[in-house]
């Protein structure tokens, strides 16, 4: 759905995006993560034909950037970093303008649909300026969906939203994923990326890493299992350490923290061994490193 | 065509909520109509010799034969103020057009707008018409008010006929709209290159200067506006408008407008 090949954008001598090669499949939610000034917005602008690449190529929704710009603009939706609404006009009027610009076939029906879907119906006649930040963001999302694009670019969709408003936007993104839309999500919010994205790309002028959040964690930190016991002793840990799949083991309070190769296949044997040694197992779970650790590790080394 | 209409209606919906702009569009043209009517009213009782002593010598050329000196003065007065109706289409749209692009930059609405399938040409034509139409209508309205007021002040129908002389009809009906287009194109160019609405308005006002030269030139008796001059001016303006629109479309580079704006 989105394909880039050695995409480069320079501003004078400054390289904003360096040789970006990337594929985003249809129906995928792809998280594009990176620090401020990493070139994320520049990438989105190139892929939505707002600015031209210096070199390289990109295909969006089957159309080539630089050659089929109008078709790309027609077929994608974009939520820009700031909502960019016409503040003096009503929510409904804002949508009417964009429905016309996107040549929506049944504008009234589409506007009603998204006003209802995003909980804006009651405020449709109010000036955009009077809406809360969350509502403005939802209105901007509605605006980007009026023409039912199959590909959606969301640039910081929950930035500066309160947790409740962010939650509503998250749920809406999940709904869009269920509808099979391709979503390119630029975000600083690592929990958001972890929760919503099928894959993430860590980006700092160039693509540092790209994979599912789980695989990126494994790649950096392996897989860690935590076993809660009624009482954990070092002798027990030493016995468990002899199991072939255990790479390392620590005792922390009444917990054993183990690095193992494949928890799904190793855990049954681990539990059997512990029970055989007389340990009383309370819980077994995977200790997930926060995505922040993964992000910082990759970005600092970039 | 629908996209152009959408832009025009959007601009009007936004701009006419600003009472200052509404004031400029309505009040200034009406003031331009009221001033000459007021002068005609106050000079009604003056003697012909008093009046003609204030008038440049070349002005007698403007007088249709058979008019009295006092009537000749009225024709002179009318012709002086006619240039105000050429000033209106230059000044009125500046407020609308100067804010047009820079306003979208400051409200951050330009990026989502440029991300739609609208072409630069459609966008500029839409913004152009949104400023030109009110300016032309305001000019014609104030000319109408002026014509009615002058008719009530002036008893001689030949003097009134001078008000509707081809040179002034040309000025109001053709040169006015052409000047409005020129003013708007210039203002849009400025608006797309600067990042501050106040700077855009100040720079856009420069377009009024050449007409002020004509205005004061006529008052001083250096320039006498006639039909030939007005026809030449129309042709020059038409050509200038076409060139300005072409340059404006090329200068309106979506990319640099977005990238340079912070």
How would you describe this protein?
The complex is a heterodimer of chains A (302) and B (262). Chain A has 302 residues and is an alpha/beta fold. Chain A is 38% helix and 29% strand. Chain A contains eleven helices and 14 strands. The longest helix of chain A is centred in the middle third of the chain and has 16 residues, at 163-178. Chain A is elongated, with a radius of gyration of 24 Å. In chain A, 42% of the residues are buried. Chain B is mostly helical and 262 residues long. Chain B has one domain (2-260). The longest helix of chain B is centred in the middle third of the chain and has 34 residues, at 120-153. Chain A binds chain B through residues 11, 45, 48-52, 70, 73-74, 78, 80, 82-89, 93, 97-98, 100-103, 140, 143-144, and chain B through 2-3, 5-6, 10, 13-14, 17, 107-119, 254-255, 258-259.
Offer a few descriptive terms.
heterodimer, A: 302 residues, alpha/beta, Rossmann fold, Alpha-Beta Plaits, 2 domains, six-stranded mixed sheet, 14 strands, B: 262 residues, mainly alpha
Percent in strands of chain B:
under 5%
Secondary-structure element sequence of chain A?
EEEHEEHEHHHEHEHEEHEHEEHEH
Number of domains of chain A: 2
Q: Sheet bearing the most strands of chain B, described?
A: none
Helix content of chain A: 25-40%
Classify the beta-strand content of chain A into a percent band. 25-35%
Largest interface: A-B, 30 and 25 residues
Number of helices of chain A: 11
Mean of all residue-level pLDDT scores of chain B: 80
Taking pLDDT < 50 over at least 5 consecutive residues as the criterion, the unreliable ranges of chain B are none
Topology:
The complex is a heterodimer of chains A (302) and B (262).
Chain A: E1 2-11, E2 14-24, E3 29-33, H1 40-47, E4 55-60, E5 63-64, H2 69-75, E6 76-79, H3 91-101, H4 107-117, H5 133-145, E7 151-155, H6 163-178, E8 182-187, H7 190-196, E9 199-204, E10 206-211, H8 213-221, E11 223-229, H9 234-241, E12 246-252, E13 255-260, H10 263-276, E14 281-286, H11 291-301
Chain B: H1 2-15, H2 19-42, H3 48-52, H4 69-82, H5 84-106, H6 110-114, H7 120-153, H8 157-163, H9 166-193, H10 197-204, H11 209-219, H12 227-251, H13 254-260
Helix pairs in contact in B: 1-7, 2-4, 2-5, 2-7, 4-8, 5-7, 5-9, 5-10, 7-9, 9-10, 9-12
């Amino acid at each position: 759905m989105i394909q880039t090949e050695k995409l480069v954008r320079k501003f004078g001598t400054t390289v904003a995006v360096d040789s970006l090669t990337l594929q985003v499949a249809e129906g995928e939610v792809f998280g594009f993560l990176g620090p401020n000034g990493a070139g994320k917005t520049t990438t989105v602008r190139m892929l939505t034909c707002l600015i031209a690449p210096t070199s390289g190529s990109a295909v969006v929704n089957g159309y080539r950037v630089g050659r089929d710009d109008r078709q790309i603009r027609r077929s994608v939706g974009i939520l820009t970093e700031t909502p960019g609404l016409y503040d003096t006009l009503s929510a409904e009027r804002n949508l009417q303008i964009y429905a016309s610009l996107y040549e929506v076939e049944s504008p009234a029906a589409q506007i009603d649909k998204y006003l209802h879907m995003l909980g804006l119906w009651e405020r449709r006649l109010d000036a955009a300026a009077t809406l809360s930040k969350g509502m403005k963001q939802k209105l901007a999302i509605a605006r980007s969906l009026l023409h039912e694009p199959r590909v959606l670019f969301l640039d910081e969709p929950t930035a500066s939203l309160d947790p409740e408003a962010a939650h509503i936007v998250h749920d809406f993104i999940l709904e869009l994923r269920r509808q099979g839309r391709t979503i390119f999500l630029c975000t600083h919010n690592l929990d958001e990326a972890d929760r919503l994205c099928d894959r993430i790309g860590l980006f700092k002028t160039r693509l540092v890493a790209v994979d599912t959040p789980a695989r990126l964690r494994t790649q950096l930190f392996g897989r860690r299992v935590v076993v809660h016991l009624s009482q954990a002793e070092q002798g027990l840990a030493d016995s468990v350490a002899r199991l072939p799949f255990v790479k390392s083991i620590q005792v922390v309070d009444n917990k054993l923290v183990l690095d193992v190769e494949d928890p799904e296949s190793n855990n049954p044997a681990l539990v059997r061994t512990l029970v055989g040694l007389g340990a009383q197992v309370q819980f077994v779970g995977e200790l997930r490193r926060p995505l922040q650790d993964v992000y910082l590790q990759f970005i600092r080394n970039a | 065509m629908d996209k152009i209409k959408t832009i025009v209606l959007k601009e009007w919906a936004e701009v006419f909520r600003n009472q200052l702009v509404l004031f400029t569009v309505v009040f200034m043209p009406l003031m331009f109509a009221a001033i000459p009517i007021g002068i005609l009213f106050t000079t009604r009782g003056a003697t012909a010799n008093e009046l003609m002593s204030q008038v440049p010598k070349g002005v007698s050329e403007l007088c249709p034969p058979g008019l009295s000196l006092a009537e000749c003065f009225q024709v002179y007065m009318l012709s002086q103020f006619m240039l105000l109706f050429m000033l209106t289409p230059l000044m009125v749209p500046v407020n609308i057009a100067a804010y047009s692009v820079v306003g979208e930059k400051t409200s951050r609405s330009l990026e989502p707008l440029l991300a739609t399938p609208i072409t630069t040409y459609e966008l500029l034509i839409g913004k152009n018409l949104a400023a030109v139409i009110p300016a032309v209508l305001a000019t014609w309205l104030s000319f109408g008010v002026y014509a009615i007021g002058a008719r009530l002040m002036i008893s001689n129908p030949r003097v009134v006929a001078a008000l509707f002389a081809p040179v002034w009809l040309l000025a109001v009906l053709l040169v006015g709209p052409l000047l409005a287009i020129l003013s708007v194109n210039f203002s849009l160019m400025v608006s797309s290159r600067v990042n501050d609405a106040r700077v855009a308005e100040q720079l856009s006002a420069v377009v009024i200067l050449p007409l002020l030269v004509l205005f004061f030139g006529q008052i001083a008796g250096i320039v006498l506006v006639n039909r030939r001059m007005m026809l030449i001016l129309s042709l020059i303006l038409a050509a200038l408008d076409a060139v300005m629109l072409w340059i404006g479309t090329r200068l309106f580079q979506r990319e640099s407008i977005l990238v340079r704006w912070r």
